């Protein structure tokens, strides 16, 4: 039995809610270049054109063979996009996007929203090409980032807690100053096309490449790389690697359409894009062979590995592709024996963040241990020294409410050579001291020592 709905009497009693003048307009984010109803598919020809425009100013980046191919059981290479002037692959996109503006648009200037790398690249090339650049960024406590923007002559506006709020603010400013051109840093067709130049270089430098691992945020990078790679070598595999805490592109693939998602705090903060780009998604979705979600712990270990073994400093987003190989148990067994390229997309990190990631990774691997004791300090330090540990921190705390007035707690943070070394230290401490404890059990994917009966498995 069909119904005609509620009666007119019921409908008449409903309170009519009027939009207040301060209510945001739903169509404020009107970007003709990124139209959800008419996505623009990027072609191989678009990338070739972009490459021809930027090649005089953007040098080819190195493709280096890993020093640890035996450890990973594959021919592993790194495409280091960290060597650009502003430290990321987005210099390609920034230069091409600004080069495609007409004289009137250049004179008026551009506006964008950014989490970091895109805004820096746009500011740098805007200064070179004499194009005024305004960048809206979420509030940040990284003063050095703001200083770098200012050094490149950009107008910096801090607004909101995430990229979505920064984007909305940028469009509000654009609506007030109609002559500004908004450029989306991960979904503009010119951004995607220029990103594809990386794949042209990879297949020129290493034609035998079997698989390319690409970090994914908004999707512009993987869309450009996949478009070119699949055109030149159809059998090549393209894997997208995305942080589990901010996986808008992965969810778009599941949903078959981008939608607004909630992003969490992640080590790969520059990939924290709430909604995948429509142009990027519809360009890449049929070209991506696999999407992989990675944990923050794996990303931290990848940062440590690149720093120690490859002598390369990277940001969390830049190490995301490699982090898939630090999963336990192994999640990509099919890559054994293959020729694999990891795109290291950027290296913009600060000293504090880098140190935190290195400490976190060492703790995960059992190479950084923390213990608390109440015994004689000199005796303890001598014993620790004999175990060949590096004592990084030593803090004494007096007990205020203990029965023994002279009781002192000693907290040590020590660096060990490996998980096995940490086990040796723990056995020695077990045999010599009763009143002590380890703060955290070191991570070990394979339970090989009874000292740590509860390894953290992922």
UniProtKB/TrEMBL annotation:
GO terms for molecular function: L-serine ammonia-lyase activity; threonine deaminase activity. Gene3D superfamilies: 3.40.50.1100. Keywords: Lyase, Pyridoxal phosphate. Its cofactor is pyridoxal 5'-phosphate. Residues 55-346 form the Tryptophan synthase beta chain-like PALP domain. Pfam families: PALP. InterPro entries: Ser/Thr_Dehydratase, TrpB-like_PALP, TrpB-like_PALP_sf. One of its GO terms (biological process) is L-serine catabolic process. Belongs to the serine/threonine dehydratase family. PANTHER family: ACT DOMAIN-CONTAINING PROTEIN, THREONINE DEHYDRATASE, MITOCHONDRIAL-RELATED. This is L-serine deaminase. It comes from Bombyx mori.
